[in-house]
Write a structure and sequence with these properties.
The complex is a heterodimer. Chain A is mostly helical. In chain A, 80% of the residues lie in helices and 0% in strands. Chain A has 14 helices and no strands. Chain B is of the alpha+beta class. Chain B is built from ten helices and 20 strands. In chain B, the strands form four sheets. Chain B has a six-stranded mixed β-sheet with strand order 6-7-8-3-9-10, with helices on both faces. Chain B has a five-stranded antiparallel β-sheet with strand order 13-12-11-14-20. In chain B, helix 4 packs antiparallel against helix 5 and helix 5 packs parallel to helix 6. The chains are: A mainly alpha, B alpha+beta.
Chain lengths: 259, 362
């Protein structure tokens, strides 16, 4: 009979087998000429650049808003705090497609139309891609950062303030440096989620080649035309980019942990 | 001088009620209380972390009740010391001048003196995680004192240290407090820490200050049974006031079989009132032929259990005539002089009437 240790390690290896097996299974349809051709095509390169750039902008904006929001949730008690804390899970419980549909419907109401006409045009544009990704990842970014701020003892800020620091100075010189691991993790995970975002993006930005075709959308379009080999090639690009980001995050987090 | 004027503070379900306290300039005052008594809440109110719901806080004549923490002029050392782990010891020490935008040169003289006095000169380039517990305390102390605080708040700062290191740091703090004439508010549950560092003591229990005074008088004359218990007085018995003659009371203690003549005090109890009578363990005297009982002593005979606590002995005395257990503290030499052994059957003890005291039941 398997003991507890073996059972749990077995479960962990099963996770690896599942994801690893799925990636390896792609090799059945892997054709080197198609891979080379897909990788070097202008359309693929555009999708890669669009995805990387869009995810970076969306993750940066999300972190910019998430840092003060997460700190406020972590440190202060205020009316509707519980409501804010609950709504962070909204993008997770509502499917990305529904989230995108909500955004699209918003741009069809008078306020949304006014925004489109007088501020920024979101529907079927790069701004739309960023907005869809931003809305999808914001809740997670706030949740991750709040956990990081929770782990920094409030007492350190109190000590800093007795030493003459204002709340803002204490935040920048004590709390933020001590939460740097969490900050990096939140950025990288938000970025990775934005990179793979599909449902909300396709709703808001559509599927226009060389305009709003991110990597996940490119994969969808290839598969829709039954181009399995091309789809496999694009999936491999996405997998390689994602794994490289995760490797980079682990390295950065390791450095931050020992800094 | 720190003055707390009837402050009340709420922290969750806990409430600190009607706290009034005065700490003179250059005085170290200890607030002593068991866990959950409200010590940290009181400290947080003075710090400015928890604003009082009522009452005022004055520091050196200025009302600081609503002043932000950074403008109160406090030095604070919490239980965990609160060194910034991402900064070197040097940067920790220079945090205050940098935060205040003051040239570090202005702090140099005092900082150098404190570094010298605490012996942390070798540690300046190191990070807190590489320091031992004692080193961390010293650095925390220097950092708190270097900003020339008008009031130093110490929140059980030595609780995590071993006994010898803790004593070493107590002496260091005592020396610095006297040399720098620091006004200090220390909160602790450790009696020795409070008595070694402070001149005056307040006993905080259940969110209220139950007694304040000179440390000796608080220990020798606790105001209530619960305070006496907290201060480690175990010889406490129920008594009934049977007579009152001017400023003298007669209190019968049936459990011990004595009738004590005690001063009535400022708030004398009514006749037939139930009170508590106590005596400190070190005031109970052993008697034998060479040390005969004195005229004002209540004499009891019984048997003993001896417990060797290292520097002193504790005797559990079981009087033959009652069910109580009397605790007696004796020095090693006295135990040897009387030739006491565990379980020796016949021992005579004297309770000097002048050492007995009464207090309110609670």
């Amino acid at each position: 009979m398997m003991n507890f240790r073996h059972t749990t390690i077995g479960a962990a290896l099963l996770v690896l087998a599942l994801y690893g097996g799925l990636i390896v299974s792609l090799s059945w349809f892997l054709e080197w000429p198609t891979l080379r051709e897909t990788l070097t095509s202008a359309r693929t390169l555009f999708s890669v650049r669009l995805s990387l750039f869009g995810a970076t902008v969306a993750a940066s904006l999300a972190i910019l808003l998430a840092v003060p929001a997460a700190y406020g949730l972590s440190r202060y008690r205020f009316r509707s705090r519980e409501l804010v804390d609950t709504i962070l899970e909204f993008p997770i419980i509502v499917s990305p497609a529904a989230l995108g549909a909500i955004l699209l419907i918003f741009f069809n109401n008078p306020l949304g139309e006014w925004v489109q006409a007088h501020a920024v045009r979101f529907v079927f544009t790069f701004a739309g891609i960023v907005l869809a990704q931003f809305v999808t990842i914001l809740g997670i970014a706030v949740r991750l950062l709040k956990t990081s701020f929770d782990e920094v003892p409030v007492e350190l800020e109190t000590v800093a303030r007795t030493l003459g620091a204002t709340p803002r100075h204490a935040f920048y010189t004590v709390t933020l440096p001590l939460a740097r691991r969490g900050l990096l993790a939140a950025f990288i995970l938000s970025w990775a989620k934005a990179l793979g975002e599909f449902g909300a993006t396709i709703m808001v930005a559509g599927t226009m080649a060389m305009r709003t075709e991110t990597l996940p959308i490119a994969i969808y379009l290839r598969l829709a035309t039954a181009d399995i080999e091309g789809t496999v090639a694009l999936i491999l690009v996405l997998v390689a980019t994602g794994l490289a980001a995760l490797a980079l995050s682990r390295w950065l987090l390791g450095r931050a942990a020992h800094a | 001088m720190l003055e707390l004027e009837s402050i009340s503070v709420a922290a969750g379900d806990f409430r600190l009620s009607d706290i009034s306290l005065t700490i003179a300039e250059g005085e170290c005052h200890a607030v002593l209380g068991p866990s959950g008594s409200g010590k940290s809440t009181l400290l947080n109110a003075v710090l400015g972390v928890l604003p009082p719901q009522s009452g005022r806080i004055h520091l050196h004549g200025e009302d600081i009740t609503s002043r932000p923490i950074e403008r109160r002029g406090l030095g604070y050392m919490p239980q965990q010391i609160g060194l910034f782990p991402h900064l070197s010891v040097r940067d920790n020490l220079l945090y205050s001048p940098r935060a205040r935008g003051v040239p570090p040169a202005q702090y140099k003289l005092l900082l150098d003196m404190l570094i010298e006095a605490t012996g942390i000169g070798e540690l300046l380039g190191r990070f807190p995680r590489t320091l031992s517990g004692g080193e961390r305390q010293r650095v925390g102390l220097v950092r708190a004192l270097a900003s020339q605080p008008r009031l130093v708040l110490l929140d059980e700062p030595f609780a995590s240290l071993n006994e010898s290191l803790r004593r070493e740091l107590w002496w260091l703090v005592r020396e610095l407090q006297r040399r720098q004439k620091l006004t200090v508010l220390l909160v602790t549950h450790n009696l020795i820490e409070a008595y070694l560092l402070a001149g005056r003591i307040s006993v905080l229990m259940g969110g209220r200050i139950r007694q304040t005074g000179d440390k000796t008088s608080v220990y020798r004359r606790p105001a209530a049974r619960s305070i006496a218990r907290f201060l480690g007085v175990n010889n406490l018995w129920d008594g009934i006031v049977t007579a009152r003659d001017g400023d003298r009371l007669t209190v019968e203690c049936p459990a011990v079989g004595i009738s004590a003549q005690l001063p009535a005090g400022n708030k004398p109890p009514a006749l037939q009132a139930r009170v508590t009578v106590g005596i400190l363990a070190e005031h109970v005297a052993l008697r034998d032929a060479a040390h005969p009982p004195k005229s004002d002593e209540h004499i009891l005979t019984g048997r003993i259990n001896l417990i060797d606590l290292g520097p002193r002995w504790v005797l559990q005395f079981h009087p033959a005539s009652s069910e109580i257990i009397l605790e007696i503290h004796l020095g090693r030499r006295v135990v040897e002089h009387f030739g006491l052994t565990d379980g020796r059957t016949e021992v005579t003890v004297g309770l000097p009437n002048g050492a007995l005291f009464w207090m309110q039941n609670d």
